[in-house]
Amino acid sequence: MNNAKSNLEKKEDIISRFMAEMEHDPENITYEYLRDITLNFVIAGKDTTAGTLSWFIYLLCKHPYMQEEIFQEVKEATRAGQDICINEFVKKITIESLDKMKYLHAALSETLRLYPSVPLNSKSCFSDDTLPDGFNVNRGDVVFYMPYPMGRMEILWGDDAENFQPERWLDDDGSVRNESPFKFTAFQAGPRICLGKDFAYTQMKIFAAVLLHFFKFKLCSKSNDVHYKTMLTLHIDQGLYVLAYLR
């Protein structure tokens, strides 16, 4: 058991860390709890993150100058030379370097505004209530809201709501602007806001930084507009076909 515990503590993945913590808090961290945590990460974090990165690559192919701007930001944040190998580059991706990637963060937020991972969502009313606009709902009613059209409403985002514009997420000093989660609903809001929000941003920024540092992406066809396929998450219908060129 001591050897097994030692091996777990040497690993840095999140499941191994939870298993190591079971030794310290066996009453609260049980195998059933660990199973639920694992399923939550797999179900809530796999398709959503992968889908967002696909839409992100698609939008950058449509806006090549933004792709180059993010590449330069990643290069400066990591202080990585052009001839660095991928293993050495990954070591340079730290919390500090990720925090410097403001434009990348903004571009991912703008991707989620236009192409939210979950385009249609609903809530069940536990009791009678009145919504902010004065509409009355009863216990047991189901209220639907739609992040996809909400992200394109001019009343919320201005006349350029249909445009991919990462700058809308940056203040004049270059810092990231945090919009109200009730306006930017990609991660939900209130008590049920996504617990994995920061984890998702970190994961997406790491993958995006590695991909854009080593590759340039272009659509297979300049007229290759893609269409969405609404499932539980927002898929690209028929997949995304791109050409990847080494920098």
UniProtKB/TrEMBL annotation:
InterPro entries cross-referenced by the UniProt entry: Cyt_P450, Cyt_P450_E_grp-I, Cyt_P450_sf
GO annotation, cellular component aspect: membrane
Root EC class: oxidoreductase
Keyword Secreted: no
Record has Amino-acid biosynthesis as a keyword: no
Keywords: Heme, Iron, Membrane, Metal-binding, Oxidoreductase, Transmembrane, Transmembrane helix
Compartments where found: Membrane
First and last residue of the signal peptide: none
Catalytic activity as recorded in UniProt: 4'-O-methylnorbelladine + reduced [NADPH--hemoprotein reductase] + O2 = (10bS,4aR)-noroxomaritidine + oxidized [NADPH--hemoprotein reductase] + 2 H2O + H(+); 4'-O-methylnorbelladine + reduced [NADPH--hemoprotein reductase] + O2 = (10bR,4aS)-noroxomaritidine + oxidized [NADPH--hemoprotein reductase] + 2 H2O + H(+)
E.C. no: 1.14.19.50
Gene Ontology molecular function: heme binding; iron ion binding; monooxygenase activity; oxidoreductase activity, acting on paired donors, with incorporation or reduction of molecular oxygen
Positions contributing to heme binding: C194
Pfam families on file: p450
Predominant location category: membrane
Membrane topology note: Single-pass membrane protein
Cofactor(s) required for function per UniProt: heme
Entry's family note: Belongs to the cytochrome P450 family.
Entry-linked PANTHER family: CYTOCHROME P450
Protein name, as recorded: noroxomaritidine synthase
